[in-house]
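hiii so um. not sure if this is the right channel but i have a protein structure encoded as tokens and i wanna go backwards to a sequence. like what aa goes where. can anyone help
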């Protein structure tokens, strides 16, 4: 339409009043011996004077059962790398860029859901995948912060936050490193370890120690505190 909203396209399966409703399947056919399978593209159109359209993928609610799952998975590769999965928000030339939010479901009577970010195990001759959590650089402002924390609890213990490196069976264990940022014109960043306040009883402890030595090693590696020159 040149003056009003364009027509709508609605693809819906049939309702099952006593059992399940029908399935809507949108898929590309398999590729041939020397070709790739077809591409599936779900996108909204561009807009010259307003907001572009929203793309929503979700399952319906359930009143007496579990909510439906939404699964996004890429294909595996037998002779090359597996497919990549990318979630990226929109770029803006005049305002703040879009957000990416990954949030578990609320449990109003029991526990909320878990959010798990993990790389798969490495093969016989490879390493496991890298996990990188990083904020972008800034040209004329502050770099973005990274916050890792647990929620508060009103009737129980606060959640624990654990950062640990992996063990090694034929090599050294992984290192855990905490380093503040460097500055070429101002004071470098600080590293602070602080125990929690106990408003009614004792505050928490801060413990810095090395583990026990093995049967063919010496004592613990020791704790070293030093100041730069």
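sure thing!! here u go:
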């Amino acid at each position: 339409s040149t003056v009003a909203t364009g027509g709508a396209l609605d693809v819906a399966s049939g309702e099952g009043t006593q059992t399940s409703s029908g399935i809507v399947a949108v898929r590309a056919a398999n590729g041939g011996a020397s070709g790739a399978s077809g591409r599936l593209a779900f996108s909204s159109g561009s807009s010259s004077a307003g907001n572009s359209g929203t793309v929503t993928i979700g399952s319906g609610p359930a009143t007496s059962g579990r909510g439906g799952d939404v699964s996004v998975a890429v294909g595996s590769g037998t002779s090359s790398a597996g497919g990549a999965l990318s979630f990226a928000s929109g770029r803006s030339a005049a305002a703040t860029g879009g957000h990416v939010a990954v949030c578990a479901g609320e449990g109003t009577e029991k526990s909320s859901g878990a959010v798990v970010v993990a790389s798969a195990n490495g093969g016989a001759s490879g390493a496991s995948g890298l996990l990188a959590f990083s904020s972008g650089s800034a040209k004329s402002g502050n770099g973005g912060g990274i916050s890792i924390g647990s929620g508060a609890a009103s009737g129980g213990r606060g959640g624990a936050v654990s950062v640990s490196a992996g063990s090694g069976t034929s090599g050294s264990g992984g290192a855990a490193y905490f380093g503040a940022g460097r500055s070429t014109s101002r004071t470098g960043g600080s590293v602070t370890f602080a125990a929690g306040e106990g408003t009614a009883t004792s505050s928490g402890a801060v413990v810095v120690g090395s583990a026990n030595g093995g049967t063919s090693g010496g004592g613990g590696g020791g704790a070293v505190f030093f100041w730069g020159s």
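oh and The mean pLDDT is 87.
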